[in-house]
Amino acid sequence: MEANFQITIAMTLYIAMVIGIGVYYAKRASKSSDFFLIGGRSLGPWVTAMAAEASDMSGWLLMGLPGVAYWYGLSDAAWTAIGLAIGTYLNWLFVAKRLRVYSHVAGDAITIPDFLSNRFKEDKKIILTIAALFILVFFTVYAASCFVTVGKLFSRLFDARYVYMMIAGAVFVLLYTFIGGFLAESASDFMQAIIMIFALSAVLVLGISHAGGLKTVIANAKAIPGFFDFFGMAQPQTANGVQQVSTNGQALFSEPARYGFLTIISTLSWGLGYFGMPHVLLKFMAIEKPDELTRSRRIATIWVIISLTAAVGIGIIGRILFPTQLLTQSQAENIFVIMSMEFFLPFIAGIVMAGILAATISSSDSYLLIAASSLSKNIYQGIMKKEASDREVLNVTRITLLIVALVAVLIALDENSIIFTIVSFAWAGFGATFGPIMLFSLFWKRVTRVGAIAGMVTGGCMVFIWKLLIRPLGGIFDIYELLPAFLLSCIAIVITSYLTAEESEEIQEEFELVRKSVLSA
């Protein structure tokens, strides 16, 4: 009881800091929809880098990814992490600067649908509508994954019902985002990124120490069939989804599964998702000075490599230290919480576990904000009521926040939801819908408006088709839906663009202006 009280105090202090940030930025956020949605393009390099990564990684970094490593071993978690690290670096290297310049030149766009629509000088806002609707759908799913994270964390900590804890967390995130907007979200993300990397590193180091050192960890991990293998995957022996335990108290495993070349390519394809993540791309657009993006890239890459490595390591070490404590894949996502409570004094554990709350808040506020802006700025003001005042847009944004949050709560009601699975679907959705057209829009002058529409619809729809209809067939079809959807979107863009007339001279001149501006900078 005393321990829970200390943990509560630590996390309450953290929450108070986050609310303080929201209140501090509330006045600036209410200046205009531009400030509320993109902060007036005023971010510095450190905040841009850390906020982009913190909003991207979410609670799955501290719960989902360690849970995968705990359940299946090294291969699946490690190849995912490698793909994400490569994708992070390439996104900052190729996309960041050009998008920052192009979004400003193309009508000073402040949302991703705005940019894509302005890029092709749309009269009928078809691209804008499609983009906004896909964002609304996939970010609602993403926000649900964050609410699941909060529910699992608090229900585990305080032995309370999952549903009540999940709803309480959702209400807090909603109120915070409602008040502060983009600047509050970015400033708190910077702080949360620091807490996240501290929490991951501290738990990893203490875990290695408690397990008897790195050599002992590796030796014990290798003793589990397929657990510490880059080309094999451990298979917990389960009955009705629950891992079986022998009479002498050992967790039972079946023969390991093969982790072949196709599976590796499929898992590495997580990195492709970065090119289409609106919450990351928006941070590129919001930096004050495009030249500072080089520094941001270095900061972000180092943060990601350390954090992903620590998350995978925590899952591996957790299986060695607590082999029979988490007997379902859903429960396995609590390994970070268990290790934190075991290694630290309660107050310090509260600060460390605030890292989970930090990751969740930093992501869910981004998701809610961008989902709301897709409706208010892009559909309401962009299509339905073009003469809408800035105050009306702000009000519609906040109403949409409430609706999106409510739908996300309904999705998150299932206590047995697996965070990693929810995130992987939404990640594929964004990666395949926006990734290809973002790359082609920035780097290929010949891409056409019709090609953009074909690519977005193909990518977004194929994620659903592959996930629900094709992947269950198994065999060569059992690959992550992002890869085939991304490739088919690229093919649709290229073929349709060549079959349709080139875009106007004005659009092509604008493309050349941006290209020369980036090269000369």
Would you kindly provide a written description of the structure presented here, covering whatever features stand out?
There is one protein chain. The chain has 521 residues and is mainly α. It has a single domain, classed as Sodium/glucose cotransporter (Up-down Bundle), CATH 1.20.1730.10. It is 75% helix and 3% strand. It is built from 20 helices and 4 strands. It has helices spanning 2-29, 33-38, 45-57, 60-72, 74-105, 112-119, 126-158, 162-210, 214-222, 261-268, 278-286, 293-321, 329-332, 335-343, 346-384, 390-411, 419-443, 449-470, 482-499, 505-520, and strands at residues 232-236, 238-239, 242-243, 253-258. The strands form 2 sheets. It has a two-stranded antiparallel sheet with strand order 1-4. A two-stranded antiparallel ribbon has the order 2-3. A hairpin with a 2-residue loop joins strand 2 (238-239) and strand 3. The longest helix has 49 residues, at 162-210. 57% of the residues are buried. The mean pLDDT is 87.
Topology overview:
Layout: H1 2-29, H2 33-38, H3 45-57, H4 60-72, H5 74-105, H6 112-119, H7 126-158, H8 162-210, H9 214-222, E1 232-236, E2 238-239, E3 242-243, E4 253-258, H10 261-268, H11 278-286, H12 293-321, H13 329-332, H14 335-343, H15 346-384, H16 390-411, H17 419-443, H18 449-470, H19 482-499, H20 505-520
Helix pairs in contact: 1-8, 1-15, 3-8, 3-11, 3-12, 3-15, 4-5, 4-12, 4-15, 4-17, 5-11, 5-12, 5-20, 6-7, 7-8, 7-15, 7-16, 7-17, 7-18, 8-12, 8-14, 8-15, 8-16, 14-15, 15-16, 17-18, 17-19, 18-19
